[in-house]
């Protein structure tokens, strides 16, 4: 019992925190380009948030999505029937940015191209959610999705946040995350975090959110951009819409 207490109260949290640091600093989601020479300076984290009184809206909403600004976010309803196991993210769409990618489980090496990936510490779908340091849809935690800062992937996030220095333009945009249960979750972008080097905050969230991550520069650039979406609603979708066939490509 003493060993289990030590494992759960000291060793496991330390390992999870170390995992977050390793994933960030080891070049996760590195933007392609020339290697930066000289000493690397870690920029000061910067947080841009949407005021709480701003209405829910998207600059370029999908024609298939209808949002009523007068309706407050509702708790995630339980589906009447659903498959066994966890509800995994399968597709992410940001209509206003032209982002539309299949989502697959994160790998242990360099992230694939042509897809987004969800961050997890447990790839066994039959295991309970409590064994994973990160959330999945419907678990009232943060679903963490990442992709390269390249064209056709999360490049538009990089362009607004880093190249054009206008991360605030993403505030209020709608993020659609489809699931393996053939449902679509709608989120509103409430915060954009720049130059982030830790995953601690994402792992500690206890509400339904989606976190999108991409990189901020060439290989070796410290810090990542995180776009955080607040849950709005969830509705049924179709298998064709929710589960596009991923075609990951090894890239470097």
What descriptors fit this protein?
single chain; 252 residues; alpha+beta; Sortase, Chain: A; 4 helices
Write structural notes for this entry.
- By secondary structure, the protein is an alpha+beta fold.
- It contains four helices and nine strands; from the N terminus they run αβββββαββαββα.
- It has an eight-stranded mixed β-barrel with strand order 2-3-4-5-8-9-7-6.
- A hairpin with a 4-residue loop joins β2 and β3.
- The protein starts with a helix and ends in a 10-residue tail after the last helix.
- Mean pLDDT is 78; it is low at 11-27, 29-40 and 53-72.
Alpha-carbon distance between the two ends: 46 Å
How would you describe the oligomerization state of the chains in this entry?
single chain
Write down the Rg: 18 Å
Averaging pLDDT over every residue, what do you get? Answer: 78
Structural class: alpha+beta
Q: What is the CATH top level name?
A: Mainly Beta
Which CATH architecture would you pick? Beta Barrel
Q: Major sheet: size, sense and barrel closure? A: 8 strands, mixed, barrel
Spans where pLDDT lies below 50 across 5 or more residues: 11-27, 29-40, 53-72
- CATH topology heading: Sortase, Chain: A
Number of domains: 1
Q: How many E-type strands?
A: 9
Shape: globular
Work out the helix count.
4
């Amino acid at each position: 019992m003493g060993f289990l207490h030590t494992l759960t109260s000291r060793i496991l949290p330390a390992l999870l925190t170390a995992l977050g640091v390793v994933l960030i600093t080891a070049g996760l989601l590195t933007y392609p380009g020339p290697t930066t020479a000289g000493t690397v300076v870690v920029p000061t984290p910067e947080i841009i948030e949407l005021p709480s009184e701003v209405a829910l809206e998207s600059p370029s909403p999908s024609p298939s999505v209808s949002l009523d600004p007068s309706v407050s976010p509702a708790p995630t309803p339980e589906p009447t029937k659903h498959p066994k196991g966890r509800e995994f993210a399968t597709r992410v769409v940001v209509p206003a940015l032209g982002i539309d990618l299949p989502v697959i489980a994160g790998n242990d090496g360099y992230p694939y191209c042509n897809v987004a990936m969800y961050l997890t510490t447990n790839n066994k779908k039959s295991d309970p959610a409590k064994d994973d340091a990160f959330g999945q849809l419907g678990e009232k935690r943060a679903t963490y999705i990442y992709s390269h800062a390249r064209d056709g992937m999360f490049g538009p996030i990089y362009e607004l946040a880093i190249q054009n220095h206008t991360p605030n333009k993403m505030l209020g945009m709608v993020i659609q995350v489809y699931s393996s249960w053939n449902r679509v979750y709608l989120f509103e972008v409430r915060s954009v975090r720049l130059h982030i080097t830790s995953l601690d905050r994402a792992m500690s969230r206890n509400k339904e959110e989606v976190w999108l991550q991409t990189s901020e520069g060439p290989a070796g650039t410290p810090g990542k951009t995180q776009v955080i979406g607040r849950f709005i609603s969830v509705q049924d979708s179709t298998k064709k819409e929710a589960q596009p066939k991923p075609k990951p490509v090894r890239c470097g």
